[in-house]
Amino acid sequence: MTPALYGLFLLGLLSGTLITMSSTHWLLAWIGLELNTLAMLPLISRYYHPRATEATLKYFLVQTTASTIILFTATLNAWYTGQWTISHPAPTLTTIALTASIMFKLGIAPLHLWYPEVLQGAPMTAALIIATWQKLAPLSLAYMTLHLVSTNFLVIVGVTTIAIGAMTGLIHTQTRKVMAYSSIGHMGWLLIALLLSPKIATLTVMVYITTTTAAFLVLTNTRSNTITTMGTSWPQGPTCLLMMALNLLSLAGLPPLLGFAPKLLIIEDLTHNGLAPLATTMILLGLPALYYYVRLAYFTLLTMPPMTHPMRVMKINRFPPSSPLMTTAALLLATMPLPLIAILYEIV
């Protein structure tokens, strides 16, 4: 794929997301989602590999199915109410179908089974885009239609998503699948944050995208596809792998790293609203996720591959010249001071 063509597809991703996020009309939102899907498919299949082809087909089927349901519900809503406005109250049937389609696009449980498989088969850069940028358009639709859905239903779905993301990630050793279940778990936290406050939800999205991007940058730079290869990459780039460990602990929500702030605000807000049992449940469900984050950090920092000439291996550097830039970016993204987060929270 030529750089010009690659840039054209990235422009399509940008345009599709902005169209969906800025529209209040269902047809414009649907057009933005379709543009997003069509621009993403060549990025997943840019390398001619059976797994990439399989991931492309799965992504196409999932996204087109969800977009078709959205178009059907929008048409049905216009038939019943005469309105194409996204935030307009809708009948129960269309609300259920719309909620399911948005959950499908976001990879929220129980409609999440496609998500780890697509991320595993996609190239690392495409997996990064799917896990971060491609979440924004469906999230904007979820925010605009949140008042149409039962709060109890969303709480149950959010807690279930956190549990599945935490429990299922324990059994995988492929880094992209672990990051996929990490993303699923964070979607559960984000769903609860949407019910509490737009400020907390916005901050949660920003922190999630920031930390996930930093982690994927290091995985891309070190070509770490499994937990074992993360350990073998240490002699060739110790600083870069140290930043990866910080990003993993930040994703786990450990203080004083960046990922701690949104989880603290969510737990604090739940407690102030008299929902301490829900907050306790979310904390307990986050412990398995903490375990596999710490396990990844352990393999990154404290394991060394078998070698007979350590000093000679340390001189090998297969990383591209952008490694110092990636390392600096990962460090800044993982350890952004909490006072800055507080200022950001007040702004948004």
TrEMBL record:
Per UniProt, which keywords does this protein have? Electron transport, Membrane, Mitochondrion, Mitochondrion inner membrane, NAD, Respiratory chain, Translocase, Transmembrane, Transmembrane helix, Transport, Ubiquinone
Q: Does the keyword Metal-binding apply?
A: no
One cellular component term (GO) for this entry is: mitochondrial inner membrane
Q: Decide whether keyword Lipid metabolism is in the record.
A: no
Top-level division of the source organism's lineage: Eukaryota
- Span-the-membrane segments of this chain are 60-80, 92-114, 152-171, 178-196, 202-219, 240-261, 281-304, 325-345
Pfam families associated with the record: Proton_antipo_M (PF00361)
Q: Which GO terms describe its molecular function?
A: NADH dehydrogenase (ubiquinone) activity
Annotated ranges, domain NADH:quinone oxidoreductase/Mrp antiporter transmembrane: 23-281
The Gene Ontology biological process terms listed for this entry are:
mitochondrial electron transport, NADH to ubiquinone
Under which EC number(s) is this enzyme classified? 7.1.1.2
The UniProt entry, under InterPro entries, shows: Complex_I_Subunit_2 (IPR050175), NADH_UbQ_OxRdtase_chain2 (IPR003917), ND/Mrp_TM (IPR001750)
Q: Which membrane topology term applies here?
A: Multi-pass membrane protein
Q: What class of enzyme is it?
A: translocase
For this chain, the family text in UniProt reads: Belongs to the complex I subunit 2 family.
Q: What is the designated name of this protein?
A: NADH-ubiquinone oxidoreductase chain 2
What is the organism field in this record? Pristurus carteri
